[in-house]
Write a structure and sequence with these properties.
With 246 residues, this protein is α+β, with helices and mostly antiparallel strands. It folds into two domains: 86 residues, Translation Initiation Factor IF3 (2-Layer Sandwich), CATH 3.30.110.170; 105 residues, Alpha-Beta Plaits (2-Layer Sandwich). Helices cover 37% and strands 33% of the residues. It has five helices and nine strands, in the order αββββαββαβαβαβ. The strands form three sheets. The protein has a four-stranded antiparallel sheet with strand order 5-6-2-7. Strands 1-9-8 form a three-stranded antiparallel sheet. It has a two-stranded antiparallel sheet with strand order 3-4. Strand 5 and strand 6 form a beta hairpin. It is elongated. It starts with a helix and ends with a strand.
Length: 246
């Protein structure tokens, strides 16, 4: 008899717990269903002038006869070596305001071997600069004969992380502002934030207008006043859900 009474008691307790738990879940669900929300996307953008600029110059050996009028390919015999080109380019870079510690060699190797000719060698110099004015001066000063191409290979900013945080915060504030004025148009008020999800929408460090272009094309871009192409653009989107105040 005692065993049966114990079983009945435990069954009653479990049944009571089950119905109490279901009732609590139902109340929570009902409460959640009644909560009114608004979901908006906030955006923010900032353009900054980079203070770290990597400028690549690819130098290569060439034939002296290439630049003599009336000469044909079969006349090319006098090779101007990399050992002659490099010191000349380096001296011209110094005249343009580039310091020794701003120059490094990133790559060197065979350029190509024309049929019946000697192997031509190339070398890439990477300059780390802080001002576009020096690049403008390089373009005016450098001897194009030994230069295969020049390009800006990277744009960076020394305080990029703190700037990105600033843009993220601005995007979130924009989301709150957007939710507020949308609700105000309906005589409602924005409540607390319930959910935030961020996404980096755009960030364009490398590479601006000089990518895969010759010095002549760089000059053309500069004369067109394309100053915005010398900037880094940071843009963020933030999706936020706010409660609608009761």
């Amino acid at each position: 008899m005692k065993t049966n009474k114990l079983n009945i008691t435990w069954l009653a307790l479990l049944t009571c717990f089950f119905f109490t738990n279901c009732k609590a879940q139902k109340m929570t669900t009902t409460s959640a269903e009644k909560m009114r929300t608004i979901n908006v996307t906030g955006t923010a953008e900032k353009k900054i002038v980079p203070d770290i600029i990597e400028f690549s110059i690819n130098i290569k050996e060439y034939w002296k006869e290439e630049f003599e009028p009336g000469k044909k390919y079969e006349d090319y015999k006098t090779k101007v070596s990399i050992a002659t080109i490099e010191p000349l380019i380096l001296s011209q870079l110094k005249k343009a305001g580039v310091k020794d510690n701003q120059i490094k060699v990133s790559a060197a190797g065979n350029y190509y071997r024309p049929a019946g000719k000697e192997m031509l060698v190339n070398k890439t110099l990477v300059l780390t600069l802080a001002d576009f004015k020096i690049i403008d001066q390089i373009i005016k000063t450098i001897d194009a004969k030994g230069v295969a191409n020049m390009q800006i290979s990277a744009l960076r900013h020394s305080k990029i992380e703190s700037i990105k945080k600033e843009v993220k915060i601005a995007a979130l504030k924009n989301a709150k502002e957007k939710a507020s004025y949308l609700l105000e148009s309906l005589n409602e008020k924005c409540g607390e934030v319930l959910m935030i999800s961020e996404a980096e929408y755009g960030y364009n460090p490398p590479v601006p207008f000089t990518r895969e272009k010759s010095a002549m094309n760089i000059r053309s871009d500069q004369s067109s006043g394309a100053t915005e192409l010398r900037e880094i653009t940071i843009k963020y989107e933030v999706n936020a859900t706010f409660a609608i105040a009761e």
